[in-house]
């Protein structure tokens, strides 16, 4: 029986080796060390090209099934009428330690615990590099004028666990500067994540209001990745620039689209984060996403917030349904 593409994308267990690993690899290096990450892409994206005008980086969910997400990106691009010659599709693969032995991968391959990459944690080996360092490396490559002379737009998108990566990266990113210097637009697309980063201790109540949460009920409620306490190493070494005010100010100015499934409202979904910290944000993904949109709007009423939230009616926890929708196609490719 044929299985749907990514419907209920995370219902299967994620704590087992992936079926497919990308054959191409991207080198990532910082002062902390170096490693490689498998990457799916259309064409030889590391070779100079004058044709590419848009790059879409899509982040897989917790199943680490980057091959499936690459197929989704190709289908969505075709639905949007995109041209493979001028649209670069990139899907990095954040592997777990068990994947390395299962596929006899080279020791240079970066690997995390099962889900640590979703919050920007450091890899377990071969060097303590964050999943955010990987995104920095991709953006640095795309910013090369010699390699991508015609590039005008970069989109970083993710669904579910990948949506968590994108939302957190949009808060703490250090990698956008080379693109900004070239005048390349950068957009973030966050789809159906289980939780968000809050900038203070306020959390939504059942009535929709925001009140200071009592930490005695959940001491971890404001720790990263739910709040700004105990930032990951990637973000905690920036001094004043990693203060709550600085991070929020930059995040509010970034171009962020949140896509929510109107039917992604099951409080018992097997892949929903039901930790006490996540529960302080709402009962289910739809409620948490709508609450976070109100939270950001209430904190930035003095200017037009460059954030928008769309609910896709009739779609549940389904990456294909989200990104194939009119709103999803517009968010990824600027057209429906």
From TrEMBL:
Keywords: Hydrolase. Gene3D superfamilies: alpha/beta hydrolase. One of its GO terms (molecular function) is hydrolase activity. The keyword Acyltransferase does not apply. InterPro entries: AB_hydrolase_1, AB_hydrolase_fold. Residues 56-322 form the AB hydrolase-1 domain. The keyword Methyltransferase does not apply. PANTHER family: BLL0132 PROTEIN, PEPTIDASE S9 PROLYL OLIGOPEPTIDASE CATALYTIC DOMAIN-CONTAINING PROTEIN. This is Alpha/beta hydrolase family protein. The lineage of its organism: Bacteria, Pseudomonadati, Pseudomonadota, Betaproteobacteria, Burkholderiales.
